[in-house]
Amino acid sequence: MLFIESLVSELESVSWGSRENAQANLGRLGLSAIEPIMTKLQDDNEEIRNKFAGALSYISDLKSQEILVELTKNDSISVQIAASKALANMGDKRAIDPLIILLESDDWQIRSNAQETIGKIGLPAIESLMGKLKDKNEEAQNNAAYTLAYVNDLKAVEVLIELTKYNLASVRSAASKALGNIGDKRAIQPLIALLADADWQVYENAQESLGKLGQPAIEPLLVKLQDKDEKIRQRAATALANIGEIAVTPLSQLLQSSDWQVRESVVIALGGIKHDSAAQILLGVLNDTNYKVRLAAVKSLGRIGNETSVEGLLNILTRSLESTRKTAADELLKLHSEHAVNAVINALRHNNPQVQILIINAIEKYAREFNIEYDSFPSWFDIYKDRYQIHLSESAKTVVDILINLSREANRLSPTCVIISVYRF
């Protein structure tokens, strides 16, 4: 009893950690802790009532269930939530109805707590949620639908798979998210089918969930990467990128395809993986016979942005007959790493005026896109200025000034190149 009294005192501590520890310890005591908690739930101070309500959620004593059921009808929302959480943790279905009511709260935190707790109950909760999905009130439908995303119960897989065909996009979206969290490979084909969904939230959740399913999803996604529909190929590429490094080798094998659109989709997926092994493969793709595939490879190297990628982009920039040079320059300008800065300065000091013009044009394009012509100097310029000791005059205020100073610093640019770069502004 003295131990309970000390925990009760600790719950009134100003320290969050002490209160959390006391709540957990009180909850573990189960039925014997209910009486002192109930006494404090009558306190006039709302803050104290909330602290003791939190202790209820830790109770896992089956003998306490009947009292907890009664507490789900308490006037205090915090008590209702805590009691429902305790029941849900014990797998008691009687927590469902009170929680379903809380889904209609105007307070998003209350709704979120209720949704998360319902999700823990799993399959038994879905039947109750189905009733809400038929509600005439659209907001009530959506609140019930979003709750499905929290379900993490292996026994619910088949029901969730059926819900991926539901007529409401919010239900399909939530079901696809839940299936990814559960991680059962039975969900792979239903999730792949959702890549063709018209609703962006549905197919994006499907992409994310397929990424979570990992290795077993690779082969079926490689099939979709060869689909005739461009949007399906792109969505499959994103899903493969979500899977990560283990997808690099299987993806690289498809680069042998005679279909340039398949090779392009592979390149897009590799760019999304953002790993050096993917960058190494993309270096070889820079020699592809198809312009669009090479262009996609340049952009993917820009997405990865590591040292290997920068070297590949600089190499493309210096190829006199390569049609993707302009894009390579643009991609270099988006990167702010030390390797990228070195590459840009090397391009500015290159002995080929065409390379110099390409990189200056890329700087101009970057400036225009970010609307900084008359704004303060862009963040990337500080890296250039400090590292290479580029000195600006006091009158230098615009991107034009930056271009002139960079041009002078390069020291090899012809007057024509400087004039062109300033004239375009």
- Taken as a percent bin, the fraction of beta residues is under 5%
Order of helices and strands: HHHHHHHHHHHHHHHHHHHHHHHHHHH
The residue-averaged pLDDT reads: 80
> Which regions are unreliable across 5 or more consecutive residues at pLDDT < 50?
372-377, 411-425
Cα distance, first to last residue?
81 Å
Which fold name is given in CATH as the topology of the domain at 1-121? Leucine-rich Repeat Variant
Give the CATH H-level superfamily of the domain at 1-121: Leucine-rich Repeat Variant
Backbone shape? elongated
Which CATH class of the domain at 1-121?
A: Mainly Alpha
Structural class: mainly alpha
Rg to the nearest angstrom? 30 Å
Which range best describes the helical content: under 10%, 10-25%, 25-40%, 40-55%, 55-70% or over 70%? 55-70%
Counting DSSP H or I runs of 4 or more residues, the number of helices is: 27
Topology:
Elements: H1 2-10, H2 16-29, H3 31-40, H4 46-56, H5 65-71, H6 77-89, H7 96-102, H8 108-121, H9 123-133, H10 138-148, H11 157-163, H12 169-182, H13 188-193, H14 200-213, H15 215-224, H16 230-243, H17 248-253, H18 260-273, H19 276-285, H20 291-304, H21 307-317, H22 325-334, H23 338-348, H24 353-369, H25 379-388, H26 399-410, H27 415-423
